[in-house]
Amino acid sequence: MNSNQEQNKPEGCDIINRATSGEYKYGFTSEIDTDIIAAGLSEDTVRRISELKGEPEWLLEFRLKAYRYWCTLTPPEWAHLRIPPIDFQAISYYAAPRRKKAPESLDEVDPQLLDTFNRLGIPLHEQKALSGMAVDAVMDSVSVKTTHRERLAEMGIIFCSFSEAVKEYPELVRKYLGKVVSYRDNFYAALNSAVFSDGSFVYIPKGVRCPMELSTYFRINAAGTGQFERTLIVADDESYVSYLEGCTAPMRDENQLHAAIVEIIVEERAEVKYSTVQNWYAGDAEGRGGVYNFVTKRGLCRGDYSKLSWTQVETGSAITWKYPSCILAGEGSVGEFYSVAVTNNMQQADTGTKMIHIGSRSRSTIVSKGISAGRSENSYRGLVKVAPGAADVRNYTQCDSLLLGSHCGAHTFPEIDVANNTAVVEHEATTSKISEEQIFYCNQRGIPTEEAVALIVNGYAKEVMNKLPMEFAVEAQKLLEITLEGSVG
Amino acid sequence: MKLTQALGQYLELYRASKCSTTGALARLNRLAADAMPAAIENYKANATEPYETRLAAMFAPDYGVNINRVDIPADIAASFRCGVPQLNSLLVVVANDIFHATDSLSKNMPEGMQVKSLRDDLPEEAAAYLFESIKPAYPEVLANSLMAHDGVYIHVDRGIDIEKPVQIVNIFSSPVAMLTPRRVLIVAEENSRVRVLLCDHTQNSDVQHLNSQVVQIVAKAGAQVELYDIEESGAATNRVNTVFADIHKDARLVLNSNFLHGGVSRNEFIVNLEGDGADANLSGLGICADKQMLDTRVTLRHNCRHGNSRQIFKNALYDEARGFFGGKIIVEEGAEHTDAAQTNRNIIVSEKARMQTSPQLEIYCDEVKCSHGATTGQLDERAMFYMQTRGIPADEARRMLTQAFMADVVDNISFEVLRQRLHILVEKRLSGAAGSCETCATSCRGAN
User: Fold this and answer.
1) Per-run averaged pLDDT (10 residues), chain B, 448 residues
2) Is A418's CB within 8 Å of B349's CB?
3) Any idea where the domains of chain A sit in the sequence?
4) Contact criterion met (CB below 8 Å) for B379 and B348
5) I want to staple A262 with a disulfide (CB 3.0 to 4.6 A). Which of A70, A86, A231, B137 is the partner?
């Protein structure tokens, strides 16, 4: 291509070029003092974490039980993933930004930390004023700054870091912790239960509609630290909350392990909407580095007519192992799962959902869009289970895969288990590539191939993108384009 | 019981007894015995498959094996009641696992075709195909190979079109619990065509029986092989059936499997599309009642360009019946212009019936068109209502709608006589006739 043509290219293409040639945009390390426990995992490590965080006895017992159980387990191998062996003794299980006292205003927050957020495009000041969101910014493991607390507190809403919740609302935490995801659930859930560092706790009281979108930015920061987040959301009767989780991580050469747990409890007629944009470092084009994202996310629709909706846009991580699920125990409860998973280069993703119908007249919808490019592997794995006593259950599942390139893989592994004769369960899956005609049509109208691909992919994912809250939708769309750059030959 | 014990008992039996086979079968037995320990060691059952159809459970009972080749008398005429009366076929009867050629076979054998026992002298090529079935991933095939003492070998010469179908009638007859290893090898040379119909019948329906069957199909370039299978055995007869098919350039496979009556039936179809333009059409229906169980697994591998495959499997589950469908389409790297579609539809009729479905796609190539669909539900309430308003009683309406539901599997059968007969068999089965074949015994005998 000569320089003349290059200049004539529309502006949009420039962004793509910059990003294609550029390194991971969010790859930098802030130099903030951190308290790190020496690498390794033993009962002493667990005790030390608990001690550092000043936890009550019952929580230490919970961690120890989980640790002892974890010792009896081996990592799961059933996923369609090639996971290099992980040395769990080489990981440091605790890193906390050091601070002398709790900051009372934004001015007291470490300026370098604020700078980190600014470079991420999340200016805390502006966000507070402009978006009206409450941001509980999680830097590594300890919550540094929480805004809008007062406004929420007036309505009786609790939105704080997990460690704060343990101190201030121990009864609530004790009542709900581990009730949806038991420490015996799986290998990574047991690991998280033993060493979880911090996370968010949300409680919406009866009849309250949360006036703003609750948001937490997770960010892995210290070198060689695993991050073990724990999120617990409780929506009491007839309440509503929309929760956003967004992630970016700095560039690393060695792999980082992230094993989080998200537990959600939805009571009668309550509704929880949980949205995620995940863009952790995916490793370079050769598959070096990148985050291992092994997450257990599950919600229990305990009350009748409760509703839980998961929306996720997964573009990052070297390996993703994640199945946000709904246990639909309440009568007429509703579960939804909308997902876009994009993999490029050497990324691997095995993601999907489980819809467990226990309550009569419960309904669920699954829409999963997988996009694979480069040499990546992208799998949808799902389960729809209808218990014998659940009458008139309805499920609709659609999972589509789009292949961009001849060296990538797109797989679908759904399980449907129906033990009731009144259930109607449908599953549909298609796999295809972008058709030559579509590209040709765009080219004809002066849209270069790479942009055309971005356009078509965005259209393909629109059904899911539309479910995202406004703030996320824009970011997610950009992410989608950036992730796929360089994938069109 | 662990798989080591379940299959190990047969390995011990093999080692303890003096081998009665010679030639290719003896070698097959030996190869299987050698491969078995490692295969058992490395075997991992799929975590989601039902307990009842796991290999460890299916092979667990202490079945007898007819190692000494005692010819247990089977009253062929009395027990064989063919479900397809007008069929003018080349008939082979396999009583337990012993090959019996019939008059209709020896008198009418067309030119360019061989149908004989695997105990006869086999060409080297055929023996090599038998040995190819020794794959560590399939311990059930190893168990069969270990004990295989007989079987059916069908060979069609190049360019020969066999109009008459070959009908293999499997009859089980034994006073004691027994495992019967059955084998079928079908080799169709270039541009030939052959149709094979397999039926399962039980004479002593109260005796526990395991039918271990391995069918191998080789369709060379441009050949067409059709295999139809009707299972109408007793409730105590379980089946572990594995079908391997290699389809070469521009060859075509039609595989149709119908479960009308039986015990626990596990059927695995492993189809490889090896040559460009290869085509596979798989279909099956299951009508399961009481505590019957039908487990269907498909692994369809597209390893060629311009491959085409269609699958349709339908089940209706009554009483406490259970169904499992595990379908996998694999599209290998470089298998461009693949067109693959899979459909699995199920009706659950009673409260205690259960259906598990796992349709899977594994795709490593971008120039493909692949889809699968699975549904589990009931008959359309509105259709039921419509029929009732026209004076059709609910039971009758339900039967008619279920029959219509099954119709697209049956209509898919190009084999005219069989299609018509299956329509009737399905109708009979749906109206509650347990062994529908028995009722047509009289019309059958005349035909043979």
Assistant:
1) 84 80 87 91 82 87 78 58 65 85 81 91 92 92 91 95 90 85 95 93 81 95 95 89 96 95 93 96 94 94 95 94 94 92 93 91 89 90 93 91 92 87 88 51 31
2) no
3) 36-322
4) no
5) A231
CB contact under 8 A, B366 and A388: no
Beta-carbon contacts of residue A398 (< 8 Å; ≥ 6 apart): A366, A367, A368, A427, A428, A429
Say whether A194 sits in a helix, a strand or coil.
Answer: helix
- Cα atoms in the 13 Å half-sphere on the side-chain side of B193: 8
- pLDDT value of position A286: 81
The helices-and-strands tally (H runs, E runs) of chain B is 11, 20
CA distance A434 to chain B (A): 9
C-alpha B200/C-alpha B179 separation (Å) is: 14
- B407, exposed or middle or buried, with CB in 10 Å at 0-12, 13-18, 19+? middle
Tell how strand A424-433 and strand A394-404 pair up: parallel
CB spacing of B376 vs A421 below 8 angstroms: no
Distance (Å) from the alpha carbon of A478 to chain B's nearest alpha carbon = 24
Distance CA B61, CA A173 (A): 51
For A329, list phi and psi in degrees, rounded to 5: -85, -30
DSSP E strands, A196-314: 198-204, 214-219, 229-235, 240-248, 256-258, 261-266, 271-279, 291-301, 307-314
Q: State ipTM.
A: 0.80
Determine the length of chain A.
489
**Domain spans of chain B?**
3-378
- The Cα–Cα gap between A325 and A382 comes to 9
Map residue A53 onto helix, strand or coil: coil
* Nearest-Cα residue of chain B relative to residue A80: B362
Q: State residue A103 phi and psi, 5-degree precision.
A: -70, 140
CB B164 within 8 A of CB B197: no
∠ CA A428-A432-A433, nearest 5°, is 155
**pLDDT tens, residue by residue, A26-50:** 555 555 555 667 778 888 889 988 8
Q: What is the CA radius of gyration of chain A?
A: 22
Summarize the confidence of residues A416-436 as an average pLDDT: 89
- pTM more than 0.90: no
Q: What is the mean pLDDT of residues A378-402?
A: 93
- CB contacts, 8 Å: A411 with chain B: 360-363
